[in-house]
Amino acid sequence: MADKRAGLYLHIPFCDGKCGYCDFYSVAADTDVMQKYCDALVSEIKGAARLFCNYTIDTIYIGGGTPSLLPIGTLARILDAISDFSLDLKEVTVEANPADHLDPKSYARLGIDRISLGVQSLSDPVLKAIGRRHDARTAIAALERCAEHLPRVSADLIVGLPGTTPAEDVASVQGVLPYVGHVSQYLLKLDPASPMAKAVAAGKTVLPDDDAAVDAYERVAEELRQNGFARYEISNFAREGEQSLHNLKYWKRLPYIGLGAAAHSFIGDTRYENPADLTRYCSGVSVGHGNVRGQTIGKEEAVFETVMLGLRLSEGFSIEEVNRAFDIDFLRDYAEELREVGFMLRSDNGRLRLKEECFLLESAVARAFLR
C-alpha cells in the first residue's frame, strides 16, 4: 500500500530549434523518433510504477524540451500510463511554447490543470535575437487561450537578455499579468557551451551590464509585488494559492521520480540520473526504470543541499528540522560559517533565511556551508 508521497517529472526532450541561451538536453523534433521515445517512456513509467509502488504521486510536471510539440493523442497515452501509479494529484503541469498550436481545452480534458508558458520577453526584437519562434502578439494570444481553459497559468520571463532595458523588462511582466497567477523571473545565466555565450565571447552579442540586469530584476520584482504576487523563491512569484507545488519539492528536498532521457530522481538518500542520450535511454529502458546512474548523498552533502535549497525560499529552512534530520546542532556545528555570512541572514521563529536584499547572493552564501 502506498504510504509515501512523491512528485513525478517527465522529460520530453524535443524542440523545433535550440534557443541561444539554453543548455537543457534537447533534440530536434522528428515524428518517428518522437514515437519511439514515447514508447520507451511509457515502458519506463509502467516499470517505475511497479518499482515505486509504495509511493503516492501527488504532483506531475511534464517538462522539456518542448512538451507542447507532442500530439494530444501521444500525451494522452503517456498520462494514461501514469494511472499505474497510486495517485492523489494536487497539480499537473505541462510546459509549453507560445509558438506551438496549443490546445489548452484538450489539456484540461486530460487532467492537466497548470501550464507554464516560455514567454521570456514581450519585445519582438529581443525574441528574434534569442531565437524564439514566437512574437509578443503570439505570446499574449497563447496566454489568453490558456487562461480561458486552465485554472492555473504561469509565465517564464528572463531578465538581462541582449538588447533589453529595465523598462522593457517591466513592460514584459506588465503584459503577462492579466493572464497569470504565477511568474518565474530568471536573471540570465549562460552556460559557457551555449551558442549565446560563444557569441558574447566573440563580441557578436552584447548583454546588459551587471548593474543594469540587477536593476531590471529588482524593478520587475517590485512590479510583481505591487500586483499581489509574493516572492516565495528567489526567481518565483505567485498570487495566493498559485505556488508551484511540484517545484517546491525540489527546494524542500522531498522525493521526486524523474522519467525520460536526462531526468533526475531523488528518493531516500539517493539521486538517480537517466542518460542524456536518446539512443542509450531507449535501449536501456527495457530494464524497467531506465539506464540509470545512482549516487548516495552523504550526511555533510545532504546538510549543504538542505541549506543551499532552503535559502532559495523566502521562508528559509527550519533549524530544528535540520537538527532532527541529521542529528546535529546546526548553530553549534556551523558556527564558523554563520560568523562568515550571518550578516546576510535573518533568524525568525526558528527559521534561517536570506535577507531579501541578499537574494541574488544566495549562491555565494550557500557555498560558505560547503565542506
UniProtKB/TrEMBL annotation:
Tell me which residues make up the Radical SAM core domain.
1-230
Q: Which Gene3D superfamilies match?
A: tm_1862 like domain
What is one Pfam family matched by this protein?
Radical_SAM
One Gene Ontology cellular component:
cytoplasm
Main location per the UniProt record: cytoplasm
Its function, per the record, reads: Probably acts as a heme chaperone, transferring heme to an unknown acceptor. Binds one molecule of heme per monomer, possibly covalently. Binds 1 [4Fe-4S] cluster. The cluster is coordinated with 3 cysteines and an exchangeable S-adenosyl-L-methionine.
**NCBIfam families with a match to the protein in the record:** hemN_rel
Q: What is this protein called?
A: Heme chaperone HemW
Organism this protein belongs to: Candidatus Stercoripulliclostridium merdipullorum
Q: Which gene encodes it?
A: hemW
